Amino acid sequence: MKAVVYGDYGSPEQLVLRDVEQPLPKDGEVLVKVHAVAINDWDWGLLLGDSFVNRLLFGLLKPKRTILGSDVAGRVEAVGRKVVRFRVGDAVFGDLSGRWGGFAESVCAPETSLALIPAGMTFAEAASIPQAGMLAVQGLRIGGGVKPGQRLLINGAGGGVGTFALQLAKPHGVELTGVDSSEKLDFMRGLGFDHVIDYRLEDFARGGPRYDLILDAKSTRSPFACARALNPGGTYVTVGGSMSRLLQILCFGPLISWMQGKRLRVVALKPNADLDHMSARFEAGEIRPKIQAFEGLEGIREAMRHYGTGQHQGKVVITLMSEA
Q1: Which of 10, 70, 121, 319 could form a disulfide with 97 if both were Cys (CB 3.0 to 4.6 A apart)?
Q2: E runs forming strands in the chain
Q3: Strand, helix or coil for residue 227
Q4: Angle at which helices 41-48 and 300-309 cross, to 10°
Q5: CB neighbours of residue 8 within 10 Å
Q6: Cα–Cα dist 145/200, whole Å
Q7: With 90 as the cut, is the pLDDT of residue 94 above it?
């Protein structure tokens, strides 16, 4: 089968289309014919190899996993002996973080990492949901949920997590502010943000309004700065960012909570735990994934280049096969 592989850390130019051996499903696994795959921060970080923690876990000098891609959607081609939830031909989606392998024509996945794609959802839409959708759902939940009249700020609002969080929160009557680059502000206004901020021109954590809940997909500010942007009793939740920032929040969050009565939380992602919840929200017409699409395995290098600019709107998804 064909797959996009890389043997060294670096830029998207390291990604090469090659013939590789097709995997065989183990007892509790299914073989999925990949129809669509999305790009996540983790894919980008593992390609660059710019994090010591990632290198320590996944290859100090060279990557141990040579095929990236975790958020996949496709059809079951074969099932292992102990698989009970799926049959050949089922349309499925899920997050394969830790295993990866989605930048390929086929990939093996544990059946516990997958869910059925609901009627009416395309493969591209399904591939956009697993990681970003789970972070949005779990981030809002850890933040105490959203309540009418609250002021909610989303940092990194024009990406996958932000666009899903907006759609999940909007029906609850909250006042929504989105922070991102100037190139995304019109896109964010069109999604329904009440206020938008260009992070290059304005620091949401310095003066200005205070918020009941901040959902941060970038974690670019110190925990003390973020706490200043909260109302009394407010909650700051980060779903991503550099390891140093996450460690700062874990270390200083309890102190800030004790001194100021404001909570600072880090989402420990539970992969695929809320796929059914997102499917239900889709079927109810409450969410519609926002996608920038590329085509074919040949388009993955270009898609990764675009992702690396940080200017993508919603999720970057590569479609490998038609919807038939």
Answers
A1: 70
A2: 2-5, 16-19, 29-38, 71-79, 91-95, 106-110, 115-116, 151-155, 175-180, 195-198, 211-216, 230-238, 263-266, 291-295, 315-319
A3: helix
A4: 100
A5: 12
A6: 29
A7: yes
Q: Which residues pair with 32 in a beta bridge?
A: 76, 107
Looking at residue 64, the DSSP 8-state letter turns out to be: S
User: For the segment 230-271, what is each residue's pLDDT rounded down to a tens digit?
Assistant: 999 999 999 987 777 778 888 877 878 778 888 999 998 999
Q: What is the pTM of this model?
A: 0.94
Rounded Cα–Cα distance for residues 300 and 298 (Å): 6
Q: Cβ–Cβ contacts within 10 Å for residue 310, how many?
A: 15
pLDDT grade for 61, boundaries at 50, 70 and 90: confident
Q: Are 224 and 256 in contact (CB under 8 A)?
A: yes
Q: Which residues of 202-211 are buried (b: 16+ CB within 10 A; e: fewer)?
A: eebbeeeeeb
Query: Among residues of the chain, what percentage have pLDDT more than 90?
Result: 79
Q: Exposed, middle or buried: residue 166 (CB in 10 Å: 0-12, 13-18, 19+)?
A: buried
Kindly give, in sequence order, each residue whose CB lies less than 8 Å from that of residue 297, ignoring residues fewer than 6 positions away. Answer: 2, 3, 4, 17, 103, 104, 105, 318, 320
Round to whole Å and give the CA distance between 103 and 273: 23
CB–CB of 176/192 below 8 Å?
yes
The rounded Cα 16 to chain-centroid distance in angstroms is 24
* CA-derived radius of gyration, the chain: 20
For residue 194, give the amino acid letter.
Answer: D
Q: How many helices (H) and strands (E) does the chain have?
A: 10, 15
- In 45-174, which ranges are E strands? 71-79, 91-95, 106-110, 115-116, 151-155
Q: Amino acid identity, residue 205?
A: A
Question: Tokens in use for 30?
Answer: 């299914």
Please check whether residue 272 is in contact with residue 94, taking contact to mean a CB–CB distance below 8 angstroms: yes
319 — phi, psi (to 5°)? -95, 130
Question: Do 30 and 82 form a contact (C-beta atoms < 8 A)?
Answer: no
Contact 211, 230 (CB under 8 A): yes
Q: Is the Cβ–Cβ distance between 133 and 126 less than 8 Å?
A: no
